[in-house]
Amino acid sequence: MIIRRLDEMVGTERDVPAPTWNSRRFILADDRVGFSLHDTIIQGGTETYMWYKHHIEAVYCIRGRGTLEDVETGAIHDIQEGTMYLLEKHDKHILRTETEMQMVCVFNPPCTGREVHDDEGVYPLLTVDGAAAETSEPAVAGS
Ligand code: 9YT
Description:
The chain has one helix spanning 6-9, and strands spanning 15-17, 21-27, 36-42, 47-50, 56-63, 65-70, 76-80, 84-87, 93-97, 101-108. It is mostly beta strands. β6 and β7 form a beta hairpin. The N and C termini lie far apart (34 Å). Bound molecules: (2~{S})-4-acetamido-2-azanyl-butanoic acid (9YT).
């Protein structure tokens, strides 16, 4: 059994910053349970393009308000406390926040902990030992 607390992760290497969000990563690939679990804060009044080409992600909003655009269809969905979205088709999406939002995110395959978005909004597929699983992509891309 593993117990981890949010306040013990803040400011450590499990607290990963990006330009519009920071993600506190409770469960990672090296726990070897097949998924990762993150508590992500997204700054209010921001717009973030994301595309998890290699991952499936479920996102559960527990605080705040914004909209999610499905880039392929142009559909806009309201996201607020109590709303979940699942990117089961590796959907390209844009999250626009009205207020700061807090999201609980589950990734399969699990993130290793070091990923931030690259210029395409993509997370590279990293392995636990630090190598990029696909050599055509950088192991750690800029955001
Ligand atoms: C909601 C969302 O996907 N935000 C980007 C960060 C990502 N969820 C992460 O790394 O936890």
